[in-house]
Amino acid sequence: MVSRCLILLMVVLFCIAQVSSDAKTGDHQTQVVRGANRRLLPLLDCGALCKDRCSLHSRPNVCTRACGTCCFRCKCVPPGTSGNKEVCGTCYTDMTTHGNKTKCP
What we know:
The chain has 105 residues and is mainly α. It has a domain at 45-94. Helix content is 49%, strand content 8%. The chain contains 4 helices and 2 strands. It has helices spanning 2-24, 46-53, 60-74, 90-94, and strands at residues 30-33, 39-42. It has a two-stranded antiparallel sheet. α2 (46-53) packs across α3 (60-74). The radius of gyration is 22 Å and the shape is rod-shaped. The relative contact order is 0.10.
């Protein structure tokens, strides 16, 4: 009887330790996409990421607006202030304006 209580106590303590460690690592926010391709996407701060991306652009307001649209649709902003578009995949690289120019900075 004592051994059963001891084992039960150990299991309960182990479960509590697992739950508390999971709570500490839960800093990342995710978004569930509904539909055929269900997946978890990180919630991005598009405003801050695009502000950094467009900081050296000659027209930062236009760049930030276009970057925000691309970030919202593709859930990605490439690192750095220019280039590296292939990091975000075809969604980012293939998006075009009505004038058939690349949209995403």
